[in-house]
Amino acid sequence: MAQVQDVRLTVDEVARELPLTRASVGNDGVSVSTLLRDTGLVTVDSGFMNTASCSSAITYIDGDAGILRYRGYPIEQLAENSSFLEVAYLLIHGELPTQAQLDALTLRVSRHMHVHEGIKAFLGAFPRDAHPMAVLSGALSALSTFYPESVGRTPEQIELATVLLLAKAATVIAYLQRRSLGGDLIEPRRGGDYVEEFMRIAFSPASGEIEVDPLVKHAVDVLLILHADHEQNCSTSTVRIVGSSHANIYASVAAGVGALSGPLHGGANEAALRMFDQIKESGDSIEQFVAKVKDKAEGARLMGFGHRVYKSYDPRGAVVKKIADKVLADLGGSDETFQMAQRLEEIALSDEYFIERKLYPNVDFYTGLLYSAMGFPTPMFTPLFALGRMPGWIAHYREMLNDPTTKIGRPRQIYTGEVERDYVPVDQRG
Ligand code: ACO
């Protein structure tokens, strides 16, 4: 598509030039900020289908071509060669770290993985079957009260909060798993590998310690990398809008966890696995289930399918499918469900309903299968997504904070309620 040079909007025969904001690659923007002042009109864009809420240098997506890059690096290269903390550094600081920088971050994060006794008590106060996303949101918000020296907007405070969030989120999520399985909370070890330590805390029995299978560790690293950022998605936009009021980073990220918990967003990994189970239990054939989805009568959606931005195969989904093949073969995971998912994908991809609407598997179609094969209970899938997304949320919060054009997020509306009317005393109401 040729680059647009000039945009004019004619309102009641008066033409106004709208300023353009250029992208380094991808869609340029048309600025409408002065429209209300100049014309009395607001723009309407339900679900922000066509609204850029900010300029960002963190992540680039081309949804038609199935491209995802963090700070310019293709996701496939990062998944193949990098580690989660290295990608976290890249997203947050803009460049890949040197070995010394990576070692320093790894050590600093590992030194902060222990959590305050008060946080442990807080986790213990919830019912054992509480959904971990609800507890996680509360715990992340509560971190600000235990580590007040990291609360604020100075570079030092933000840097400390960054390390604390990366470190403590891993321990809290691992503890949530231990609690749900009835285990005691074991202490993190200092100086270990981030993912290995997370897995050790999550899975070690009360006495003794597990050896983390290197293939599983690698798969978790890759899954976390794939989830690490996805530009202005629902939860990241939530983090930005909460932070735009100058709420602290903990409150902002906790709000992001709430947004992520929904089944149309991060909760889709859990919903997809439940969907596979339901199909099995119902005795329906895959064709019958697809027919129900297309019929829309029962409100069924093919969970793990479709994406607001990707109108081709989600590049993260392609990476997950490849590792799922390997890990499931190695762990002897649910082959039956994997085959069912593959068959479901095959049928959907050749069906006119899905082709017409450009619905492809997204990252969540296969992740639940993998997590399940690794031994994670189903409610832990979305907290794992949250752990992966943490660097992205932090990077966006920091970018927003440093952007002089940031304003408090405050959309307009089209009011469709009653026009002015007079109060009627209760004894006179019909
Ligand atoms: N199954 C069946 N039909 C679907 C699906 C699906 N998964 N997704 C979209 N459609 C249909 C809609 O019914 C609609 O059909 P229509 O034109 O006949 O009305 C059309 O495709 C467009 O769908 P919208 O809901 O308008 O698309 P939107 O961009 O708003 O939604 C979303 C994107 C929420 C991801 C949607 O595809 C969905 O609900 N998918 C299932 C949940 C899911 O997997 N979410 C994870 C997203 S990835 C992530 O957060 C990491």
Structure, described:
Helices cover 52% and strands 6% of the residues. With 430 residues, it is mostly helical. Strand 1 and strand 2 (14-18) form a beta hairpin. The structure holds acetyl coenzyme *A.
Briefly say what this structure is.
By secondary structure, this protein is mainly α. 52% of the residues lie in helices and 6% in strands.
Amino-to-carboxy terminus distance: 61 Å
In DSSP terms (H or I, runs of 4 or more residues), the helix count works out at 18
> What ligands are attached or bound here?
acetyl coenzyme *A
What is the number of E strands? 7
Mean pLDDT: 94
* Main β-sheet, spatial strand arrangement: 5-6-7
Report helical residue fraction.
40-55%
Amount of beta strand: 5-15%
- Described by the principal axes of the CA atoms, the overall outline is globular
Q: Rg to the nearest angstrom?
A: 23 Å
H/E element string? EEEEHEEEHHHHHHHHHHHHHHHHH
Low-confidence parts: none
Coarse structural class: mainly alpha
Biggest β-sheet: count, sense, barrel?
Answer: 3 strands, antiparallel
Keywords:
3-stranded antiparallel beta sheet, mainly alpha, 430 residues, two-stranded antiparallel sheet, binds acetyl coenzyme *A, 18 helices, 6% strand
Strand-helix topology:
Blueprint: E1 7-11, E2 14-18, E3 20-21, E4 29-30, H1 35-39, E5 59-62, E6 67-70, E7 73-74, H2 75-81, H3 84-93, H4 99-111, H5 117-124, H6 132-146, H7 155-180, H8 194-203, H9 214-227, H10 234-243, H11 249-260, H12 268-282, H13 286-295, H14 315-331, H15 335-349, H16 352-356, H17 364-374, H18 381-402
Antiparallel strand pairs: 1-2, 3-4, 5-6, 6-7
The structure holds acetyl coenzyme *A.
The site of acetyl coenzyme *A has 19 residues, from loops.
